[in-house]
Structure formats: structure tokens, C-alpha cells
Amino acid sequence: MSVLSPHNFHIPVMGLSFTIDSPIKVAHYGITSAISIIEDNLVEMMRKHYYQQSNEPYVPISTDEGNYRVRRLTDYLNLVNRNVQSKLEDLRSSAFETGSEIVKYFEMLPEESGLKEKYRRFLDMAGEAEKVDLEEVF
């Protein structure tokens, strides 16, 4: 499956620990990135961190368990997906006001982006009714 990014860059793998959670931090802004999943002990530490951060019950996957590496990686990738989806929903439901996630998203888009052009037209609109109609498009 090919996903088109509204940006003209991506974040590559930059070593073991630098990009393991990049998607959680930037994917909701439409920025693509790669995850290094080579070190499964690091994956397990990140699982614990993000389970605790999202107030979900964390169940360790021990190296003594069968297929522990596959289970750790699968669970971590599913956890990343849930976090990204949650942040994306938060972004979509945020208000168009200074400092909001949706405003940050549009401000980070490349200048030549069609979405950014629509956003600029939105900002230039005088009528609140017009803005409400256009907010539904975003």
C-alpha cells in the first residue's frame, strides 16, 4: 500500500533508539518515518513506556516465552498504530485557533501544497458561516 504524504521529506532510520517512536511523534502531521526494530529489548522498554503513558495495562513479554521477539514487535507496532490514530483524531477534532494541533499541521505543510492553499483561503474568509462549511472539508 502506498501512502502519499503531503510533505516532500521523510524521517529515515537514524540508529537504534533515535527513531523507534518517530511515528508517534510526527505521523499525525502527515510526516512519514521509519522505525528501527532491531533491538527487541528496546522495543520492550518502549512498549512499557507507551502503555503507561496511555494508561493501558502493560503486560511484559519475557524472553522465556515462545516467539517473544515476534510478539514484542507485533504488539509494539499495534501500540504505535493506536497512538498515531488517537493523535490523528485529536488533531482532526481540534479547533482552528492559534497553537492548536490542526493549525500546526497546516502551518507545517509545504508552501506549494494544495491543502495549504485551501487553508490560506480559509484564513482569508471573512464570514464565519463560510469557515464552518470549509472546516467540514478539512
UniProtKB/TrEMBL annotation:
<protein>
    <submittedName>
        <fullName>Uncharacterized protein</fullName>
    </submittedName>
</protein>
